[in-house]
What we know:
- By secondary structure, this protein is of the alpha+beta class.
- It has five helices and eight strands.
Amino acid sequence: MAELLKNAETVKLGNADTKKLGGNETKKLTQSATRSKKEKAKYNVKNAENSLLLKLKDGDVVIEMFEDDAPKHVARIKELVRQGFYNGLKFHRVIDGFMAQTGCPYGTGTGGSGKKLKAEFNKRPHVRGTVSMARAMDPDSGDSQFFICFADAPWLNGQYTVWGEVTSGMEFVDMIKRGAGANGMVREPDEIVSLSVIADL
């Protein structure tokens, strides 16, 4: 039986090397490959590299992305997600029966990441759970802002780039705080707790 260390000896022991690491790094250190695999598997997605975990105040939302239909948008969204760009951003424009919009770093709908994307309009319809790129009048003005449809919106078809769909947790999207007026601007809006690529979990 190993001898117990005396108090004087335990005082000399240094802190673990992980103390200087950030939360995400220490999490990866302590999580085994098996546990990580189980974590990803529980979301039941076709392709973990092209799926997102959107954490909202009320629960987790899984978004599967359409890499074949909007490859440049999917690549850019993943790039921004991996930079932590979306964490803490507000759902600044939310219209009941229509959609919830986010992705503006200012929380006003006036900003983006600074990189415009050429439109990738496709045949995917705007239905309940569709995730699509917001834009200004110019078709090629999409940047970082996107919206999730609460209901079917066929008038948007072919006019906005559909790049994903909610495959689970839509009930939590339904709980996002609504805005007022025709424009749907929200006072004290809900935020994205975090947005991650499921392959990175």
